[in-house]
Amino acid sequence: MAQDRSPDELTAPDELTEEGARAELARLAEALSAANRAYHTEDAPEISDADYDALKRRNAAIEARFPALKRADSPSDQVGAAPAEGFQKVTHAQRMLSLGNAFSDEDVADFDRSVRRYLGTEEPLAYTAEPKIDGLSLSLRYESGRLVQAATRGDGTTGENVTVNARTIADIPESLAGAPGAVPETLEVRGEVYMSHADFEALNTRQAEAGGKTFANPRNAAAGSLRQLDAAITRTRPLRFFAYAWGELSEPLAETQMGAIERLAALGFATNPLTRRCQTPDEMIAHYRGIEAGRATLGYDIDGVVYKVDDLSLQARLGLRSTTPRWAIAHKFPAELAWTRLEAIDIQVGRTGALSPVARLAPVTVGGVVVSNATLHNEDYIAGRDANGAPIREGRDIRVGDLVQVYRAGDVIPKIADVDLSQRPKGAVPYAFPTRCPECGSEAVREPGDAVRRCTGGLICPAQAVEKLKHFVSRAAFDIEGLGAKQVEQFYRDGWIAEPADIFTLAVRYGPGALTQLKNREGWGAKSAENLFSAIEERRRIPLNRLIFALGIRHVGESAASLIAGHYGSWAAFITAMDGAEAGSGAVWEDLIAVDGVGQVMAASLVTTLHQPAERASIDRLAGLLTIEDAPRRGDVDSPVAGKTVVFTGTLEKMTRAEAKARAEALGAKVSGSVSAKTDLLVAGPGAGSKAKKAAELGVETIDEEGWLALIGAA
Ligand code: IVH
After folding, report:
1. CB of 129 closer than 6 angstroms to any ligand 1 atom
2. Distance from the alpha carbon of residue 92 to the mean position of ligand 1, in angstroms
């Protein structure tokens, strides 16, 4: 993944060529959108906040240098992610904003200077400073003093209607406090839903005891609890709420930010007791340090301090950038760090043979979590250089026995940032990265341009074989119920399955005895064993795209597999083409790389893998046991949208996004997430933003949902 790359391996923004910058902006847009989706829609962050911020900063720096290359879907213009399916959508009367970030005292001084420059004043300004709560934001709408709607932020413009759930939260008043004439007619209160550490621990204990899902951190627990389709579940979850901002108002709350917060408290909301008014940047920073020092004893997660211009008339003059106010900034806490001993370096072997070094550490607490493993990326990272040979950590290498600095932010895999050479034990030797696979002894080689060393053992390597099997049974591949990663490991260890084909011969190989043997194993009963065999039988029939994806060929992901399946249509056509293909040249090769979305690297990986005799024999054994469903060939389907590239944007009212996509694909269209010159049709619902704008610029035909339904004959 892009974000696995260490920042040191990237070209500095001011050294990028225009072409490099364009490619980098595309990569960053994709990485940030994936990170947003994981964080906001799936409540399962994949990268740390610090890494996320680093990507955003890099994007902003490149955009600042090449303003003309700023993308229509630039991450700088986006807040969060589009709402998940399942809840009704709510369009916010006023956009829900995000905040710019400061990472150092200097950044805070810059913020104050830029605010004063904008206002044309040399005079000191007052700001409020308050903790930045690590939860999820919620907008509460009160009309005539009563709560009428609660909505999550979503993408800032459209959120999810979680009113029923919000009513179960004790901190959220059903009616505003005060006499009827004394409360605003319309009031949108904004704030953060969060869960305390104690409640989070207790919830996880309860969940674990009941065999339910446990949460990685309080933020995920809060988000998962609020966004329950069944509000009865939300009711059992101890959520809390701090009010810190507002949206639409029928009358001003006060003249100052501090006054407005006091008014919200008087109307019955919980407000953060650490909110202070500060007269200078020094006071702001002193309050920040105080909050940081007390962070561990607060009882809930915070990830920084927010400063806001106190005078609301000045806030109004300062206004907004695209998604962030000019009058506020979040001063983030640094990623959490700790020093510990590196006890060993282990090598893990992945599905494609990649050798990944893992640091085994003397256990140490980093930000409240005990860490004993961390990633070391690759051999260059250990050696203290980047992929181009330039030094990282000023060239300091990492050795077993070293005192190393571990960091973690959010819930991602911890990393090693630095090493203390003054603490290096005598006799510590540079780490010799293995040139043989630790699992199978095959040679491990590094291809030119690849940061990763790979085992060449292919199927004879047990680590690769198991990882391949795990991939084979995974959700987007064969998705065999009852056969997950754990069971695959067990079966592999016991010699029941060594390659995918073995899954489909299990029952015949072990005959009727298979059931008995299986049910006598730990964790298996008669019923689960029987279910497993029928789940395997069900998957004997498999769509071509799933099969291609399941093969686990390097660079061939889920969507590429669908494109390839759509291109060849049948397994026979695909295999015949691969047999006749020559990597790098010839008509078949040209035809393959002409498939939209298939590049040279992927094509070469496909062809070489399918030309490897052992690999191919294993695939043939598998294919012989399956009934492979043909894929509708793109363009073959007789429909007005066959072969067209379609993009959906905005809110769809008659169908979910997933449905719309599946329907379009079934009609032979290609559904893309972004508008480009290749787009044939944009289907835009209410709330369509940058994509509609870009389509207009490019002259792409745009229709609404009704128009789409009429076009495909479903109106
Ligand atoms: S003010 C006008 N204050 O941080 C700005 N936001 O990174 C609206 N957050 O979306 C936000 N604590 O979810 C503000 N004391 C605080 C906050 C806070 C947490 C969240 C909020 C916002 C995000 C921006």
Report:
1. no
2. 16
Q: How do beta strands 645-649 and 627-629 pair?
A: unpaired
- Span 605-617, pLDDT tens digits: 999 999 999 899 9
In sequence order, what are the residues at sequence separation of 6 or more whose Cβ sits closer than 8 angstroms to the Cβ of residue 526? 515, 519
Can you identify the CATH homologous superfamily of domain 645-711?
BRCT domain (3.40.50.10190)
Ligand 1 center to 200 CA (angstroms): 21
Q: Averaged over 73-102, what is the pLDDT?
A: 82
Ligand 1 atom, smallest distance to 98 CA = 24
In CATH terms, the superfamily for domain 337-423 is Nucleic acid-binding proteins (2.40.50.140)
For the Cβ of 331 lying below 6 angstroms from any atom of ligand 1, the answer is no
Residue range(s) occupied by CATH 1.10.287.610 in the chain? 2-77
132 CA from centroid of ligand 1 (Å): 6
Q: Which CATH superfamily is domain 89-332 in?
A: DNA ligase/mRNA capping enzyme (3.30.470.30)
pLDDT (0 to 100) of residue 1: 33
From the candidate CATH numbers 1.10.287.610, 3.40.1190.20, 1.10.275.10, 1.10.3720.10, the one assigned to the domain spanning 2-77: 1.10.287.610
- Give 675-691 pLDDT, tens digit per residue: 998 899 999 988 888 89
| Ligand 1 nearest-atom number relative to CA 132 | 12
Ligand 1 centroid to 328 CA: how many Å? 9
Closest CA to 96 of 191, 31, 238, 28: 191
Q: Of all residues in the chain, what percent carry a pLDDT higher than 90?
A: 59
User: pLDDT at position 8, please?
Assistant: 43
**Does the Cβ of 102 fall within 6 Å of ligand 1?**
no
Least confidently predicted of 136-140, 214-218, 433-437: 214-218
**Ligand 1 proximity of 351 Cβ (cutoff 6 Å):** no
For CATH 3.30.470.30, the residue range(s) in the chain are 89-332
pLDDT of residue 523: 78
* Confidence check: pLDDT of 548 > 50: yes
Residue 237 DSSP label: S
Average pLDDT over residues 45-62: 80
CATH 1.10.150.20 in the chain: give the residue spans: 473-539, 543-629
* Residue 397 contacts residue 20 (beta carbons within 8 Å): no
Q: Where, residue-wise, is CATH 3.40.50.10190 in the chain?
A: 645-711
Architecture of domain 543-629: Orthogonal Bundle (1.10)
Task: Specify the pLDDT at position 5.
Answer: 43
Q: Which two tokens stand for residue 55?
A: 């990507």
Atom 23 (ligand 1) nearest CA: 98
Q: At residue 463, what are phi and psi to the nearest 5 degrees?
A: -65, -45
132 part of the active site: yes
Which amino acid residue places its CA nearest to atom 10 of ligand 1? 98
Q: Measure 88 CA to ligand 1 centroid, in angstroms.
A: 23
CATH number of 473-539: 1.10.150.20
**CA–CA separation, 118 and 102 (whole Å):** 18
Indicate the helix (H) or strand (E) that contains 118: helix 105-119
**Rounded to whole angstroms, what are the CA distances from 442 to 377, 439, 457, 459, 608?**
21, 8, 5, 11, 19
Residue owning the nearest CA to atom 21 of ligand 1: 137
Residue 158 host element (H or E): strand 158-160
The pLDDT-based confidence of 395 (bands split at 50, 70, 90) is very high
- The whole-model pTM stands at 0.52
- For 658, residues 6+ apart whose C-beta sits below 8 A from its C-beta are 85
> For residue 381, how many other CB atoms are within 10 A of its CB?
23
CB distance 647 to ligand 1 below 6 Å: no
The finding on whether 97 has its CB within 6 A of some atom of ligand 1 is: yes
Question: Which pLDDT score is estimated for 2?
Answer: 34
Q: Is 132 in the pocket of ligand 1 (CB under 6 A)?
A: yes
Instruction: Specify whether the CB–CB gap between 45 and 289 falls below 8 A.
Output: no
When mean pLDDT is compared across 64-78, 111-125, 150-164, 247-261, the lowest value belongs to 64-78
Q: Is the CB of 318 under 6 A from ligand 1?
A: no
370 CA to centre of ligand 1 in angstroms: 29
- The catalytic position among 132, 332, 415, 470 is 132
